[in-house]
Amino acid sequence: MLNDDQLLRYSRQLMVEDFDLAGQEALAGARVLVVGCGGLANPATLYLAGAGVGELVLADDDAVELSNLHRQVAFRRADVGQHKAEALKAQLLALNPEVSVQAHTLRVDADWLDREVAAASVVLDCTDNFATRQRINQACVIHRAPLVSGAAIRMDGQLAVFDLRQPDSACYACVYGDGTDGDLACSQAGIVGPVVGAIGTLQALAAIQVLQGKPLPASLRLFDGRTLSWREMRFHKDPTCPVCSRP
Ligand SMILES: [Zn+2]
Hints:
Elements: H1 4-9, H2 11-14, H3 20-28, E1 31-35, H4 41-51, E2 55-59, H5 84-95, E3 100-104, H6 110-119, E4 122-125, H7 130-143, E5 147-153, E6 156-162, H8 172-176, H9 186-189, H10 193-211, E7 219-224, E8 229-234
Parallel strand pairs: 1-2, 1-4, 2-3, 4-5
Antiparallel strand pairs: 5-6, 6-7, 7-8
Helix pairs in contact: 4-5, 4-10, 6-7
Residues 170-171, 173-174, 238, 241, 243-244 line the site of zinc ion.
């Protein structure tokens, strides 16, 4: 049950027909794992904390740098040099003290992911390297955890939801393979702030939809920031996928 303060705080989303009280309670009971605390996670977690997600678990081993601030808009100039996970936690609690936030300053490994993904209602991949993305996907396949994957570079963004609670769901590796192609960091290729912000924001929306049990189509959405346009590519489970189709 929501108290008066909560009814007021969440009133504008509760007015929305697709949201309702049961949807709000689903958010309050959820634990969201967010791997990476940069340009995707900044808006994603601000919106999730604002919306009233019960528990957020953050992981990142990086510190805030001056060159991050144009896109990692939850951070302030004074946060430079601080651990990203801790600095983000502070901002989320300032926004909504009712949300429980855990900040882990570490580079995630397979054991840590195995534990945390098992306890998560939904997982947001907000990282920027292919090897970690693959490890996150493997843990999500094992634990049948829904995975909301975002990526952005230069003027291009990508968003995909893998609802691995469904036995016929594709996984990240079905779509992207298991190679290391395309592992290009923002530090080398550059990134325009609102592009990564748009993708992170939609990761939050997709997570809310997943937590409220709304079906999302299995598709990869590609955003072109030059023309503000989207393309959609449907995908299917790969019967030869080495991650999710092993006998
Ligand atoms: Zn797969």
